Amino acid sequence: MRGATYSPNETPFQSGRGGHPRRGVDVAFDDLAFDVVVVGAGTAGIPCAIEASQAGARVLLVEKDSRIGGTLHRSGGHMCAAGTRRQRDRGIDDSVEDHLADVRRISRGTARDDLVRIVVGNAAETVEWLDRHGFRYASETPRIVYGHEPYRIARTYYGPDEGRSILAVYEPLLDEAIRTGRLTLWRNAPVIGLHADPDGAVTGVTVLKDGRDVEVNTGAVVLATGGFAADAELFAEFEGARLVSAAHPTSTGDGLVLARELGAGIQGRGSYLPSFGGLPDATTPGRANWADRQLLVTAERPPVEIYVDRRGRRWVAEDEISIDEKERALTKIEDQTFWTVFDDAMLESTRTGPAMVVGWSPDDVRARANDREGVHSAADLPALAGATGIDPAGLVATAERYNTFVAAGADADFGRTHLPMPFGRGPYYAIRNHGIALVTFAGLDIDETFQVRREDGAPLPNLYAVGEIIGAAATCGQSFCSGMLVTPSITFGRLLGRRLAAATAG
């Protein structure tokens, strides 16, 4: 039964955590063994499995969901690389050292330099690999992206279908690897346990397959199960903040929990930074709807509105050009919750420019006020405050003070310089926003070979981790560096897959 493929059942994915209730009877096959088991068929796991199988290893790729791709179904799929053919074709002069310097600047030196060097040194080859296999670029790429603190050089790439553009490259490569017989894919198959010998070396996994616990022996386990931004308990423990999630629902930290049971260490604690602003989901408490978010990046839409906290007070210059500074300011206000407040004339002024809410016209905002969760309208500011939970006296005083700044042409409180219009007559509007979690910053500690380390820094033999499970802080520090989440996932996955196959051959 070596390398045999089982037909997947069609039940919803399970939690996949250690200590999962045992189903049916244990099934232990002495000859059910693979050279490499990759846990998680997403951004990092799929290329790891493909490369390992192409290099001759017998690989089992297990995925708890009924479909492969993981966060690629939700991610923007942004990648970054210096010195690519596409840059050269557009006359863009870039280098690995320039890329490294930009990551160091944006992260303020908080990312792991050893891992960042591996990423930027191999990123161009990663992008070219996708290119060779038919990746479709969005026509405007490479470009400078302003949704994060921007690079100085255009080096961000993505496809017209965002993360799914990457998945479109993966799928035929994965199908071909399966046809060779060297790669086996199990879906609806959460890993519920890791095995280790008396010396602590990982020797296999337990997979919940077709209602039974299946024991699989292997020479190496790769955890590529993603982050935990869909799990409020883990988020509170590791990130120390209230979770308002826009993450993929499978991002529940399963691999992290399994590895911690073997004493794995955690890196990136205390690095969490929220993405700046997302509307509350219309139907699900504790989640944000990223698709119809407000456009709050000054480089893309200079603000006409003000931002206020629960006390009705402003807390940042709304036209601050650095989204990083806005995100850091957001961490300091209560519940990382704020409202954008504006009147009808301000709303109407956005009709001919970028929308205030992505995909919404001014008329859409008016129609959804007092109907869509988090979108409010009232005839006057005290009534608006009452509808939102904002302190009425604070909101009225803030609007009056802001109007004096507009008249004077200077903001004495925060130094805002874009002061296009004062508050006038109603109706008035408020849209609630949260600091939201798309990714998580803490994760498994790894060395430069991607081997998981114990809490004391010693390696956990035969256990590896790539992708968001190592935490965004590893390659971004306490920041968002454009492309430095997807690119490391693909790059580390491919490098590790080849390395593990070579070790098997040796």
Description:
The structure is a single chain. This protein has 506 residues and is an alpha/beta fold. Helices cover 29% and strands 19% of the residues. The chain has 14 helices and 20 strands. It has helices spanning 45-54, 85-89, 96-107, 113-132, 163-179, 232-239, 254-260, 323-330, 344-348, 362-368, 381-388, 392-408, 473-476, 486-505; strands spanning 26-34, 36-39, 59-62, 79-80, 156-157, 183-186, 191-196, 202-209, 212-218, 221-223, 266-267, 275-280, 288-289, 306-308, 337-343, 375-378, 428-436, 443-444, 451-453, 459-465. The strands form 5 sheets. Strands 6-3-2-10-20-19 form a 6-stranded mixed beta sheet, sandwiched between helices. Strands 12, 13, 14, 15, 16 and 17 form a 6-stranded antiparallel beta sheet that branches. Helix 1 (45-54) runs parallel beside helix 14. The radius of gyration is 24 Å and the shape is elongated. Residues 1-30 have low confidence and may be disordered.
Quick recap:
By secondary structure, this protein is of the alpha/beta class.
SSE order and pairing:
Elements: E1 26-34, E2 36-39, H1 45-54, E3 59-62, E4 79-80, H2 85-89, H3 96-107, H4 113-132, E5 156-157, H5 163-179, E6 183-186, E7 191-196, E8 202-209, E9 212-218, E10 221-223, H6 232-239, H7 254-260, E11 266-267, E12 275-280, E13 288-289, E14 306-308, H8 323-330, E15 337-343, H9 344-348, H10 362-368, E16 375-378, H11 381-388, H12 392-408, E17 428-436, E18 443-444, E19 451-453, E20 459-465, H13 473-476, H14 486-505
Parallel strand pairs: 1-9, 2-3, 2-10, 3-6, 10-20
Antiparallel strand pairs: 4-5, 7-8, 8-9, 11-18, 12-13, 12-17, 14-15, 15-17, 16-17, 19-20
